[in-house]
């Protein structure tokens, strides 16, 4: 029991980094996801590029993407000699980049689903009232689409919290990284990973609650 | 030894991580395309006749 408590305290030290990576990547990813979702509707080259992006990042594993960015980019001298390298050399930025690019692809599909759920009549009515395309999206389509997308997007946020555990493979000492370290010292895999799982569970419990609260606040009074 | 492990070994021994991880990503894309196509088809079928907002 003393070991469990000690482990838990050690693992808790990794929680700030886990939350940092999760919030930063979800925030960045959400912005990119919104842009991508709107672009998929645009048609032409922009729509094609957005769909190709979603295809690639949704269709390949996050672990491969992390390795590709972390080990792969460093292979090119041009990248190593660029002014961005001192920044990029830190694994934190690689992890943030990979996580954000990945969640953007999933988020874009979630938002696209929300946009599809808005009835055509709503947009037509807005047009008849003389709204511009921008006004139509801002006041009619997006509010309804985003409300529709919240449950699925909450899902994506929870998945991102768990995905930050993959950052441990590029030496970041977040919860999973610390857990691996303790296990290699003590060889007690089960209690240590159980503690790590409990921490992720607690974080995601809070997130699920927050998403449900948001859902309830935005629900139409029936 | 699955696709991922094989890729790690290849990337490590040849020192060409970008090439091999890109190749692995392509192979995974081939595998996931099947389900992507399936869902695109399902989406088209269920949305038949319905216009977009």
Commentary on this structure:
Chain A has 11 helices and no strands. By secondary structure, chain A is mainly α. Chain B is mainly alpha-helical and 53 residues long. Chain B has 2 helices and no strands. The radius of gyration of chain B is 18 Å and the shape is rod-shaped. Chains A and B meet through helix 3, helix 4 and helix 8 of A and helix 1 and helix 2 of B.
Report a brief summary of the structure.
Chain A has helices spanning 2-12, 15-42, 44-59, 62-72, 77-80, 85-88, 91-116, 120-128, 133-163, 175-186, 189-218. Chain A has 222 residues and is mainly alpha-helical. By secondary structure, chain B is mainly alpha-helical.
SSE blueprint and pairings:
The complex is a heterodimer of chains A (222) and B (53).
Chain A: H1 2-12, H2 15-42, H3 44-59, H4 62-72, H5 77-80, H6 85-88, H7 91-116, H8 120-128, H9 133-163, H10 175-186, H11 189-218
Helix pairs in contact in A: 1-10, 1-11, 2-3, 2-7, 2-9, 3-7, 4-7, 7-9, 8-9, 9-11, 10-11
Chain B: H1 3-14, H2 17-46
Reading the helices and strands of chain A in chain order gives: HHHHHHHHHHH
**How many beta-strand runs of chain A?**
0
Secondary-structure-derived class of chain B = mainly alpha
Mean pLDDT of chain A: 92
End-to-end span of chain A in angstroms? 50 Å
Key features?
heterodimer, A: 222 residues, B: mainly alpha, rod-shaped
């Amino acid at each position: 029991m003393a070991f469990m408590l000690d482990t838990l305290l050690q693992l808790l030290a990794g929680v700030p980094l886990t939350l940092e990576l999760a919030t930063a990547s979800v925030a960045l990813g959400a912005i990119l996801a919104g842009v991508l979702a709107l672009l998929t509707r645009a048609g032409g080259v922009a729509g094609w590029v957005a769909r190709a992006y979603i295809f690639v990042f949704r269709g390949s594993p996050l672990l491969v993407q992390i390795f590709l960015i972390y080990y792969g980019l460093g292979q090119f001298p041009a990248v190593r000699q660029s002014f961005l390298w001192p920044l990029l050399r830190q694994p934190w930025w690689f992890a943030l980049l990979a996580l954000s690019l990945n969640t953007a692809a999933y988020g874009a599909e979630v938002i696209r689903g929300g946009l599809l759920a808005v009835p055509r009549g709503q947009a037509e009515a807005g047009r008849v009232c003389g709204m511009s395309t921008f006004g139509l999206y801002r006041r009619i389509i997006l509010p309804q689409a985003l409300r529709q997308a919240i449950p699925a997007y909450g899902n994506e946020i929870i998945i991102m919290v768990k995905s930050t555990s993959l950052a441990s493979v590029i030496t970041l000492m977040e919860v999973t990284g610390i857990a691996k370290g303790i296990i290699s010292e003590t060889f007690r895999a089960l209690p240590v990973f159980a503690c790590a799982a409990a921490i992720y569970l607690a974080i995601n419990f809070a997130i699920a609650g927050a998403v449900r609260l948001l859902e309830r606040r935005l629900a139409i009074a029936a | 030894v699955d696709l991922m492990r094989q890729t790690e070994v290849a990337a490590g021994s040849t020192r060409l991580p970008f090439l091999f991880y890109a190749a692995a990503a392509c192979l995974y894309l081939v595998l996931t395309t099947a389900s992507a196509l399936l869902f695109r088809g399902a989406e088209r079928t269920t949305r038949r006749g319905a216009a977009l907002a």
